## 1
Amino acid sequence: MNRIPLERKVLSENDRVAAGLRERFREHGVLCVNLISSPGSGKTSLLERTLEVWPRSTRAAVLTGDLQTENDAGRLRRFGFPVKQITTGGTCHLDAGMITRHLEGWRLEDLDYLIIENVGNLVCPASYDLGEATKIVLLSVTEGEDKPLKYPSIFFKAELMVLNKVDLLPYVPFDVEDAVENARLMHPAMEVIRVSCLTGHGVREWQTWLEHRRHLFLQSKEQPVA
Amino acid sequence: MNRIPLERKVLSENDRVAAGLRERFREHGVLCVNLISSPGSGKTSLLERTLEVWPRSTRAAVLTGDLQTENDAGRLRRFGFPVKQITTGGTCHLDAGMITRHLEGWRLEDLDYLIIENVGNLVCPASYDLGEATKIVLLSVTEGEDKPLKYPSIFFKAELMVLNKVDLLPYVPFDVEDAVENARLMHPAMEVIRVSCLTGHGVREWQTWLEHRRHLFLQSKEQPVA
């Protein structure tokens, strides 16, 4: 198969564009986070809860990816923050070029947070750097504790696992400790926040995590680049 | 981007291998089904219930795909049917070459059913023909009713949608009629079976569907190929 070399070429071109984005985010102090999960793990619901509790003065914007439909952008625009939908057609992941194009018309100097909701896919998005400061993986308690072992790449790269839909724990055979242990087999320093977008449980902790993460990001910005 | 032409080449090589598989399945009267869904929609659980209720005399075998781990094959082998795990490494879908290699050592003349559990991914597996007679998509009620609109390709190609985890309907904001309507927007003739692998609801209907589908397959086998 002569597929691998071209894939490498596509990825290294993506890395080049992503490095440019990362430099722009760094320059303007924009914390960019890349949310990755299976379809239906609750990325959009988590963002709805987040935008709902954030003060309107929060300088945040959202890019949300899907193969088709503007549904998610519609759901998120209600809260008054800038939101753009990226529809990829058939493509199974976002890439740095898509992010660059969809940032046009937004001034990074007006933003503190850029949240990217990737296409619902636990595999391919893990390979495409979008210039983000951090990758965050969502796992819902309806999906099974062994997902970190079966889809190791994204769990290896993510800094935080949001364990979502914990309101359903009484009704599903899901062992939280096993899931966390599996995630930490892939990434020993993995942080974990338990969330229910239905009840609001954990949303405040997630919001605080984001604020703290931006604080760390700004500190690192003051360090000279290695 | 010069990615598209190579992707076409890879796909057409896959189509060639898949056509060979389809001819072999046809010759031996093996109904091959390709189960596709997000990670955690319950493909393995559905297969556990299926193998559990099938008489041991059923001539069935399973190939189960994951990026990593032999977990699913371990879960499925308990029932005494031939099961092989396909671990793809980083690859986000099964392809026809993987199926060909993993069929080695099995005699197709001993089989009536070959069930393939694809890698958990609602996007990429839809593009790779495995020589199957039919694609089946699983959607769990925890995933949201608009998934058929957001991931149109697999819903367009699937003959049956198994709506799984219906035991959770009292606890999730999910509208079954909306989901079915969305699936039929993509594929007007989509059949739908509601299943709970926890309670066993719908498992008998699914089993009957498979038997009936094999009956149709054998009938079509008697027709000359167009």
## 2
Amino acid sequence: MLSATALLAGAQERKSDYVNPIIGTNGMGHTFPGACAPFGIVQLSPDTDTIPQNVDGRYQPDVYAYCAGYQYHDPTIVGFSHTHLSGTGHSDLGDVLIMPITGPIRTNPGTADHPETGYRSRYSHESEHCSPGYYEVELKDYGIKAQLTATQRVGVHQYTFPSNEGQFVLDLGHGIYNYEGKTVWTYLRVVNDTLLTGYRITNGWARQNYTYFAISLSAPIARYGYSDRQRMKYSGFWRKNDIHHNFPDMAGREMVAYFQMPLTDRRLTLRVALSGVSMSGAIANLEAEAAGRSFDEVRRQTAEAWEHELEMIDIEGTRDQKVLFYTSLYHTMINPSVYMDVDGQYRGNDMEIHRADGFTNYTVFSLWDTYRAEHPLLNLLKPKQGRDMAESMVAIQEQSPLGLLPMWFLMANEGWCMSGYHAVPVLADAATKAGLPRSQRILSAMDATATSPWVEGMNDYIEMGYVPYDRCGTSASNTLEYAFDDWTIYYTALKAGNAEMAARYRQRALNYRNVFNPALGLACPKYKNGTWKKDFSPLQTYGEGFIEGNSANYSFHVPHDVQGMIACFGGEKIFVRRLDSLFAVPLDKKYYEDNEDIEEECLMGGYVHGNEPSHHVPYLYAWTSQLWKSQYWLREIMNRMYVNDMDGLHGNDDCGQMSAWYIFSAMGFYPVCPGTDQYVIGAPYVPHCKVTFDNGRVLEIRANGVSDTKRYVKNVKLNGKTLTRRYLTHSELTAGGLLEFEMATKPNRNSQQRELPYSLSAE
Amino acid sequence: MLSATALLAGAQERKSDYVNPIIGTNGMGHTFPGACAPFGIVQLSPDTDTIPQNVDGRYQPDVYAYCAGYQYHDPTIVGFSHTHLSGTGHSDLGDVLIMPITGPIRTNPGTADHPETGYRSRYSHESEHCSPGYYEVELKDYGIKAQLTATQRVGVHQYTFPSNEGQFVLDLGHGIYNYEGKTVWTYLRVVNDTLLTGYRITNGWARQNYTYFAISLSAPIARYGYSDRQRMKYSGFWRKNDIHHNFPDMAGREMVAYFQMPLTDRRLTLRVALSGVSMSGAIANLEAEAAGRSFDEVRRQTAEAWEHELEMIDIEGTRDQKVLFYTSLYHTMINPSVYMDVDGQYRGNDMEIHRADGFTNYTVFSLWDTYRAEHPLLNLLKPKQGRDMAESMVAIQEQSPLGLLPMWFLMANEGWCMSGYHAVPVLADAATKAGLPRSQRILSAMDATATSPWVEGMNDYIEMGYVPYDRCGTSASNTLEYAFDDWTIYYTALKAGNAEMAARYRQRALNYRNVFNPALGLACPKYKNGTWKKDFSPLQTYGEGFIEGNSANYSFHVPHDVQGMIACFGGEKIFVRRLDSLFAVPLDKKYYEDNEDIEEECLMGGYVHGNEPSHHVPYLYAWTSQLWKSQYWLREIMNRMYVNDMDGLHGNDDCGQMSAWYIFSAMGFYPVCPGTDQYVIGAPYVPHCKVTFDNGRVLEIRANGVSDTKRYVKNVKLNGKTLTRRYLTHSELTAGGLLEFEMATKPNRNSQQRELPYSLSAE
């Protein structure tokens, strides 16, 4: 691998060298291998396919496999597009595809079986090199070396052609999940012989997505033209001009343009800036971030930016442990992404252009996933970004035609994916940890969302204390999720001194109890009339009142009142037995074989790490007498669910959630209940870890001799003093100091760690 | 007719009372009867059809008949849309259609034969009342009285329902020339129960047209929903919500929404503001122009605005003469239209948002038509508007991806219709008459356009001095038009002191000679190799090297060098014979029967007044010894080509060109060569006329006893002094004073008017 080191002086270890962007690019991980800057809106990456597959005689896109546009096992690269979701379970983007070619012009991508029918090319992984902010590959069919790097808003391509005949295709109709008609409109202007501008409007998962761009070229264009795959409905008078040759003002439904330019050193550099606002915004972004800088300069600058982020945490461990740790840390800083021009303008959810006043606007909020660990990790390590993301969410609520905080938000659009109103815990967590003021604006945004009739089943939930199963198919998980979200409103209102609101939401925070079926000791879908679903299977994932998780997993989703939940299970003994069997008893194949989200290697017993509702579950032993079982299972999960290879993520990375879980767990603690200032203590995965916080303080975490055999915690000391708690507070961490874990080969059944973490019932 | 008078006190004659917006609404005129303010972008008018007709088994829109969306003979009204072209020969717009209905919701328009199949309604002309800024009709099928008025940017509807159940349809997929797929995208937001915002993007003649709107309602909406005629390709997670009932955030390819609201007095008022920039721009336009004003107040205000414009000219004459005069004057102030939000922002031809700096931005430039008399009339009567329109054109050139001044420009788009670069004479004319500075910007915009390879045949024209017939089918008329346009550049450069440019374009201004075939004494298409087209027919309109005009008409198109042209014809004797026979010898039907532009009643001999190339021709006798023949034919044209009824315009009004010709000719002079300061004298049509100019000066024109029999001019006096010239200058007119025509029943073959108007050759 050609690493960033090659470019940089000094023998010092570079964290970036451990990042392996290939992890998760095959199968389930849905990560992409391409180039991006930390939190950048541009993710310039190869798309290996997005082509429909023939299903029942009709072409349908393989939505799920190509969420990030790339599958490692694919034999061809279609081209390099500029926007990608990192690790999601649903598809979109892939905007502004560029493919350098030689020989005859082709304006269709062709097929993987017959790449010669289009502009795509074969490639081999031997020629593929990637590191944070850099991607390189050889396009075999053309003998072109492609190098990619990026700033936050600009993708920079460097193509080395086999001769001085430079040529590329710009496919404005390309996209991920590219069903016919997804591209609504495309526009392209040749401003001069080294500058192109344009935009495309798409109707995808992002219902109306405006992607403006500006492309500057290192060599002047000699010839160009385009074809329109969906012929423009009215072209009337336009026929007066020969629009297919060197006509600089192009528009159409799905344009594919080509450009040819003589080169002097076989090299062509393209700088492609994006904007959600306007073409002039894209030009300004280009000017600000990439103008006058060579490919190598941009590459070096972005490599430095990544190194700066990654060296926040210094760990010791095996090479694989370091690779997994730093790749995970890398994956936590791709989405959310900056969605704002350098002048502060951005497109709001109301499709109006706004100017961010005092914050940086972000997008790509996969909140059902990321409220758990991704946002808490950023609130801990990157509080400025944490605050800005929270501010972005409040702006969304204020601009939303529905008055809602984001649910699954991408570019300027609410994507209505998954459930809950989990922007609320993110705001609560940012208030507790990242310095977000608990202002009336924040409380209003939370309250408006948590009482909105557009939240599934909310009217019934308010009236009856649960979402009835007659109302929706995921009523039980909805109720559990709403109750937790409500707790975070309660807690925020309490701290803000709003007693009325606190009381109202404290009441709602206990609603989880309304879906616990006392006869089963498990959460269960309940009808309006108060009766429980008959023939209920706690192991079946779908059709039983839960979303992406069965009752056996989901019933543990009461992070804000674990003690109250234990009572609902029927007491600690039953609770521990349920936890034990979740991890240890294999799940019969019939419960997951039809499920696109779950494969056999994703399972540990019935525990599905690839589906987020499980993420806090291994920590729940902290509220029981068998604390050491957390220590056992956490290491098991880290060993089995994270592997240093292309298939290395056993589940969607979900915009960094899987990765953020790994970072926390490897350090030895986890934010079980976001919004509190507590991190529940597990056990470190690596012997030494040093975290440099934003405030300059350094926390050292030592777990001498930790290993698969020596995985148990005998004793914990904070700054030399034995810890009698099972949690650490946010201020303890960020104050810096020394956190020492004494590790042992056997469980310590008599731990000094006695004080339980927070539970609402225990207040 | 319920006229504005009914609303206004005072017994004084109101010019508005003479305006009959029905003139030209049947057949060829292509005017619309609806409500607009002077130069307003909103033309709120009934569309009687836009439905495709079955041609060869395929549905095709009847583009030509429905250029303004309305044909008087149609039995049904589809609804009321907000944008209309006035008198054009090509179709577009019809944006944001609203139709009040009763009974069951219908989201399709239905057909004229079976209106009950859709939301359209029958109506009768007896219930139809219109005046400047006002339109009223009863929708028979619903018993709804519809009243419409408008400000420049806001259409105001007042509907009186038969009961207190208010209801209307908002069809965002409706449009004029509405082939399938014209509507690219639609968005609609219910901001609150009395405010809607949204936009539609269309791909019509205006290649990419963005129409944003804001609609405020006088009564709160109780229920609403929509259907999407072109189902949204990806609706995925949106299905989570019941988007068809009261879901306030709607988007789709071709949405039709309905709204229901209880009323208290059976009345519903809607204020619909448009913007080319944004929804917030539309809201600001609404606030500025219509908020807090009742329907009657807006109606009165717009009636006053029209009265103010119309009373610039006070005439005596028969009622029909007054009706035709004031209706013509009205028609000259609809297009061009303001295309700018109240804050100065507008969408440019580069699809970027700009702010007009020191001018008002206009659009709808039908320049092949309007450079002749419409723009000169505005430069005379409305110099501020004349300057602003010229500035708008220069801004277009500067923003144009092709660097071109507008040709046929609508909304933010070049429509590539007709020929020439006739923005150039408009700039020249505005510089001579309306105070436009002859700055380097103006000269550069002219020069860039007149040398652009995107102007048809320009490279050959520059090289060879004419557009060769091998290059394009309208090469002869192109050459004539280019030569005139070039003269206006010459004249402007000369006055600006740019000798190099003046010399270059003086040379080009003589290029008309290169297409005069000396053997014929007529303009004729010539090949690259210098030979003339064989089997040439000077009477045939199409296929003979000319556009919308035959050689018999078009050969007279050398307005800047009539004396030079006379020489090309073979001397005055032949020239006069040609003119005489043009007016007097009937054109055989075979020359026009296939032509959508020409009907029998549009002809006077071979003179086609409905096609603009003829417009200056009756004035050309002024360069001959038979001046009196102008006087004869001008009155003939005014009598026969302008009639006070629905069919009253014998040709497209072409954004006011037909009407502006009438105003000039009725006053007794005409700008044969726009760009010069001369108006060639004809003969007044009415006995008395008083023009109050912008500068406050008043010009009185007297032609005592003028009539069909007493149509000849014996003598002309300006301020008591006999005029020996055949023209008046701009400064003479705008200085005010008394212009007296002594009329006679016989030609004065010994006129004191001896001095010829301008000719380049005579300089």
## 3
Amino acid sequence: MAKDNKKMVDAIASMDEDFAQWYTDICLKAELVSYTSVKGCMVIRPYAYAIWENIQRILDGMFKDTGHENVCMPMFIPESLLQKEKDHVEGFAPEVAWVTMGGNEKLDEKLCVRPTSETLFCDHYANIVHSYRDLPKLYNQWVSVVRWEKTTRPFLRSREFLWQEGHTIHETAAEAVEETERMLNVYADFCRDALAMPVVKGMKTESDKFAGAVSTYAIEALMHDGKALQAGTSHYFGDGFAKAFNIQFTDRNNTLQYPHQTSWGVTTRLIGAVIMTHGDNNGLALPPAVAPVQVVIVPVQQHKEGVIDAAAKLRDILKAAGVRVKLDDSDNSPGWKFAEYEMKGVPVRIEIGPKDMESKQCVAVTRHNREKVFISTDCADEVFVNAVRERLTAVHDGLYRNALDNLERRTYKCTSTDEIIKALEENGDGFVKAMWCGEEECEDKVKELTGVGSRCIPFEQEQISDVCVCCGKPAKKMVYWGKAY
Amino acid sequence: MAKDNKKMVDAIASMDEDFAQWYTDICLKAELVSYTSVKGCMVIRPYAYAIWENIQRILDGMFKDTGHENVCMPMFIPESLLQKEKDHVEGFAPEVAWVTMGGNEKLDEKLCVRPTSETLFCDHYANIVHSYRDLPKLYNQWVSVVRWEKTTRPFLRSREFLWQEGHTIHETAAEAVEETERMLNVYADFCRDALAMPVVKGMKTESDKFAGAVSTYAIEALMHDGKALQAGTSHYFGDGFAKAFNIQFTDRNNTLQYPHQTSWGVTTRLIGAVIMTHGDNNGLALPPAVAPVQVVIVPVQQHKEGVIDAAAKLRDILKAAGVRVKLDDSDNSPGWKFAEYEMKGVPVRIEIGPKDMESKQCVAVTRHNREKVFISTDCADEVFVNAVRERLTAVHDGLYRNALDNLERRTYKCTSTDEIIKALEENGDGFVKAMWCGEEECEDKVKELTGVGSRCIPFEQEQISDVCVCCGKPAKKMVYWGKAY
């Protein structure tokens, strides 16, 4: 068993020695992705896609509970449509893929593969929004988008990625701002409750806004290596797109008005965030809410009479209760199986062998801390299921606590750029909390001097000092700074 | 009320006078689609997308129950990859969209937007299939694909459409053939049980096979106007793709072998099939299994005390039981609402007003035949729910029976091309059952002379005569012929 274990573990780099290699190793060894002949694009393999399906199911429920409906726009955007909103086209045109031929014929107008769909939604709104009675429209779509990135990494940055994009249109600015905030909160709640991942909620600085937005809100998470990852964004557009696309409605006073819009999205990047937040040197560690397999049952001495039957009985009880459970009765050794399902991040492993059967119990091992607990099998099904669910909750809570510890331990309050440099050198990468005067020049200079850029202006402000960490002039805001994925 | 009704009904063409216009009218008036600035592509609006989500949910469950896993391949295929299988590229290259630019740079190799993904799956199998232990792989993906069609119609033929594509790879030819048949049966069962749509199962002739397939199986449905619609296909590939992509595995005797493959798919075309199978001059009629709203509750004299409360109570009871129910208490007239939800094809309408409340009942109207039934509300919730469910079943059964009647009434047995011409002239378009010698020449000639092409060679064969309907030589197979969408 020790040998088997070693072989599996040898297969991945140590996260402390080479985090980037560790990440790539997990992506491949846990069978999450596979490279393809299409540069910058990957296959999302069944195990990773099942994680994405769980993410989709939970988020989609949250979207519907907040009144949103799913739609589907075309994947192509004619060049003239993309160009209608000036800031938007400037932001996206340099990184889109262009379709120039259909069959054997050159197209009259080239089409880009959507990098995002604001322009398509606006084109549609112009057709269907005429009166205040038509508002709001609260739409979402689950699709893939394309951005022609030069360097790519699985889940974090790829030329095609899966996401959802919410697009809403409202009578008033206040309603649209409220929606922008509501959806950022939905994302933050989802990260906490489903991904066991704490995030910082805040606003992007002017230089970091989405192309065409009045303001961009974001949730920022801190990875195990101390780098920040933008995990979701929510944009308030004002009426800029409405004016560019001539979307108008008759209001309650019979006056023509421009409506106000929002958009918001999260992507398969969340899978990368889960890997880098919870994984360890034994592999992936998955939060139970999104784990394709929540409980794996490994029979011990399975050739002995009754062992497989006893294991199958536990599987059936858990399955009937809606737990995602797998019984591995293959002829691999228990040690191989232990290592395999640790690599795959299965939250709870149940072991059952002849000795356990004698004492009418089984062993439950929680993935994140390898803690062993005996669970009685000499009880009503419901009692057994609850004991297993309690173990799943323990994994969720343990993962969240560890991630929060990491975030708190790696958040440094600094009042000068020298302090920032020192904090990062002494403690490693992390979030830096520091005051800012609001000038882009200082934002750039902090990055130049210290290597950390502004991540967001958090909603929860704190007065660390009265002056800008860079220029010493009066500070306007406390900012989270960090190196970003 | 009569006037309201008339206004709504006037909005769509009569299906008997202009079926094509009737179809387009339904697509727009029932808010299923909207046209876009992207030629040949449409917006799938929330109501139609919700139908698609129901189709997805049910089919995805059937795929998982038969052991399949979802994955996601890139949307692009490099030209060299598309060209690896000769028949396949010949079939698809003329109708693909080509990406030739990424950002501002010309690509070294152009990429097509997937028209189908056999080549990508093969590229992936070559990486991950090495031993018989790696087989079978039973994969599926839910994505959109692009085919550069010249003339397009909502759902039936568009440049981009949504679909699922199953792709499997097996040790033996027998296993792959079995899979091909299994999935055709899954489609046929789904059409019967979820869409209330009878289909003919059979094999395509050589000239109608999928590009690269050894054999193509299909389900063919008959629309209200007597035209056939191919509703799903399942292909057996033999080892042709494996050889072209050099996919090999070590078998149980330690010998290198080529594996055998299949693929199978259904598309948003199914929504078009539902419209043209069940719709009538009052609009759409949806089978309960895929209807976004299964029951609409319309209060009558809703300003009277207690009416809205009584309606809301029924809604809550049905909702708690898992019925997809909507209460429309807007200030539109009941007549307007009746017409609106008939247009949208809601299977059951419940009316409740002061009189009904007095007699402790409500009225349930089934969409397909406008039959009115009184349902007691003076009973346990469960009894009420079961009575409503019984009405939903009545709609499903009624829709299926009508569709089967149409198919049977419009299926003509013919023994000569003259008989075919006469049958179609006298009875209108439909399926023609006639014998065939197996020669492509005769297949083409039948189409030329009569206007109907071969739809499929049904699995349920019947000996209509001994000789080919065209050349008079000995017949090999009975064939379904028809005009196709």
